[in-house]
Specification:
The chain is an alpha/beta fold. It has two domains: 111 residues, 3-Layer(aba) Sandwich (Rossmann fold), CATH 3.40.50.2300; 140 residues, Arc Repressor Mutant, subunit A, CATH 1.10.10.10. The chain is built from eleven helices and twelve strands. The strands form three sheets. Strands 2-1-3-4-5 form a five-stranded parallel sheet, with helices on both faces. It has a four-stranded mixed sheet with strand order 8-7-6-12. A three-stranded antiparallel sheet has the order 9-11-10. A hairpin with a 5-residue loop joins strand 6 and strand 7. Helix 2 runs parallel beside helix 3 and helix 6 packs across helix 8. The longest helix has 20 residues.
């Protein structure tokens, strides 16, 4: 989602842009204190949502919104203001949203979830993990192919751990449950790690694997993951959950129970 924000108060604008930049739904943010510069940007760039302060010196937000609608009819306008009396004008503009200052992340996310013209967001990340239903991992939207079937389960477990380092012993105990740990099994695990790292390295993605002596982790921020987006409260991810999580792996039931418990409490 590509977003701009316009406010003639520089400090307020910078704080708001910083907040927008931290939200996973938003791919790019540009801030403007000058309305003419903002309008010129909208003419020449793809913009999905414009957050506009209403009460500005010179051209106000209402007039700016009218001009933006002329050059970019499909743009979503969300007004921000400290003055409640502007709400009627905003409604007449068929705005996508209206937020009273100071705006919180919750306020912004609520408006983005209910835009007048919903935005089809596309992941900019090369790695994607599907956790709801059967687990699958993709590179550039193509399913990963590994030498060993168990390699995919290893990745699934590391994704489930969300960036926490896990020991070889923990992996062996989880993926093979009560099976006796032997030198042969330990060697097999080393082969799985090598298989995983080789596939990611070939795609120039080897930095997503973190290794210490006898420990390993993934960089969760490198993955577009439905489970991670669910944790962040993403509506699409919440709606995508249908009671299944990494269904092919028995150890995933612990996380599934936590998801179901939170769904009952929050939704």
């Amino acid at each position: 989602m590509r977003v701009i924000s316009v406010d003639d108060e520089k400090i307020i604008l910078e704080d708001f842009v910083d907040m927008l930049s931290s939200m996973h739904e938003i791919d790019s943010v540009e801030g403007f204190t000058d309305c003419d510069e903002a309008l010129e940007y909208v003419k020449n760039e793809d913009v999905d949502v414009a957050f506009l302060d209403i009460h500005m010196r010179g051209m106000d937000g209402i007039e700016l919104a009218k001009r933006m609608k002329v050059v970019k009819p499909g743009i979503n306008i969300v007004f921000l203001t400290a003055y409640a009396e502007y709400s009627m004008q905003a409604m007449k503009m068929h705005a996508s949203g209206y937020i009273m200052k100071p705006a919180s992340e919750e306020d912004v996310r609520r408006e983005l979830e209910d835009l007048r013209r919903p935005v089809q967001t596309e992941s900019r990340k090369r790695l994607r993990a599907q956790c709801f239903g059967n687990f699958e991992v993709y590179i550039d939207n193509m399913p990963c192919t590994f030498r060993y079937i168990k390699t995919k389960e290893l990745i699934a477990y590391l994704i489930d751990r969300r960036g926490a380092y896990v020991t070889n012993g923990e992996i062996l105990g989880t993926l093979w449950e009560d099976k006796e740990v032997t030198p042969s099994l330990e060697n097999y695990l080393r082969n799985l790690v090598g298989d995983m790292r080789g596939v990611f390295k070939e795609a120039d993605l080897d930095s997503v694997i973190l290794k210490k002596k006898g420990m390993i982790a993934i960089v969760p921020e490198a993955f577009d993951c439905d489970y991670y987006r669910w944790i962040d409260g993403d509506v699409a991810a919440i709606n995508a959950f249908s009671g299944e999580y990494m269904s092919q792996y028995s150890w995933s039931e612990y996380t599934l129970a936590g998801i179901e418990s939170r769904m009952e409490e929050d939704y």
